[in-house]
Design brief:
There is one protein chain. By secondary structure, this protein is of the alpha+beta class. It folds into three domains: 50 residues, no CATH class; 47 residues, no CATH class; 128 residues, no CATH class. It contains six helices and twelve strands. It has a four-stranded antiparallel sheet with strand order 1-2-4-3, with helices on one face. Strand 5 and strand 6 form a beta hairpin. The longest helix is centred in the C-terminal third of the chain and has 21 residues. It starts with a strand and ends with a strand.
Length: 285
């Protein structure tokens, strides 16, 4: 232990007895505090620098108290702002009275019927008016509807996304609509099949349950989207179909997919001697 003024330097070498260190620290003036710690340049060890509290309640060179004195008020150079007393109250009332979303029948954006429990009731209420629309949202004081995402629309989007996640591009990655026109066409074909009630096959290897195969075919002639059908791997285990019958199912379903998409307006080129057909263009409006 070495002392210089009010600072005490305690050198702790490797292998030092913890009891000796505690005894050296206990010998310091009560109230001493650790100010720094450094290692000597000429040997392995740690130098602890302690400093004694001076007499009095505050340490030497202490900063002024940061708490304001009693009765202190800030000095404001700018004039005090005057806020209308009813401004926030009106906003809070409007916030607390936010209506619950529901289905409404509207004509030219104006509510003419409702609230209804579902889209069917809202549509049925306006069946006699060709301009009537079923809208989901919150009724406004001016008689309009602040639209909100409809529950059935959200359910459909979740269902569609579940199927689109099963698609794989020619590089094995997910199909991205912004990659090129072929990728966009593949997503349009997949969406049409899902909307028609057909499942998409999981081509990522997670759940091989069968379904429609939708694969971007950029190197085909012409470029497009190849479509086909994959049967469930469990089909042969049923024992009720012959191997010849099971082998024809991809052909039958492939032609059915091509016919379905052709009915929906897609441009189809039939495959020659293969299970795959090619979609080359989406429906035009």
């Amino acid at each position: 232990m070495a002392s210089i003024g009010d600072r005490h330097h305690l050198t702790v070498l490797p292998g030092a007895d913890p009891g000796d260190v505690r005894a050296a620290v206990a010998a310091l003036q009560p109230g001493s505090y650790l100010t720094s710690r450094r290692s000597p340049r000429d040997r392995d060890g740690v130098v602890l620098v302690f400093r004694s509290w001076p007499d009095g309640d505050a340490p030497v060179d202490a900063d002024a108290p940061t708490t304001p004195a009693g009765g202190w008020t800030p000095e404001v150079a700018a004039p005090v702002a005057e806020v209308p007393p009813d401004l926030l109250r009106t906003v809070r009332v409007r916030h607390d009275r936010a209506p619950v979303p529901a289905w409404w029948t509207t004509v030219f954006s104006t509510i003419v019927g409702g609230p209804w429990a579902d889209r069917h009731d809202a549509t049925k209420a306006g069946a006699d008016d060709p301009d009537a629309r079923a809208v989901y949202g919150c009724a406004q004081p001016d008689g309009t509807v602040a639209a909100r995402p409809a529950p059935d629309q959200l359910s459909w989007e979740r269902h569609l996304c579940t199927h689109l996640d099963r698609l794989r591009d020619d590089d094995g990655g997910p199909v991205r609509s912004l990659r090129d026109d072929v990728a966009m066409l593949a997503l349009q074909v997949a969406g049409a099949l899902v909307a028609a009630g057909l499942p998409l096959a999981e081509t990522g290897g997670a759940e091989p349950h069968g379904g429609a195969l939708v694969v971007p075919a950029r190197h085909a002639t012409p470029a497009g989207v190849a479509i086909g059908w994959a049967t469930h791997p469990h089909l042969p285990a049923l024992g009720v179909h012959s191997e010849a019958t099971a082998a024809t199912l991809p052909d039958v379903m492939g032609y059915a997919l091509a016919s379905l998409l052709g009915t929906l307006g897609f441009r189809i080129q039939r495959g020659a001697g293969t299970h795959a057909h090619l979609v080359t263009a989406a429906p035009t409006t």
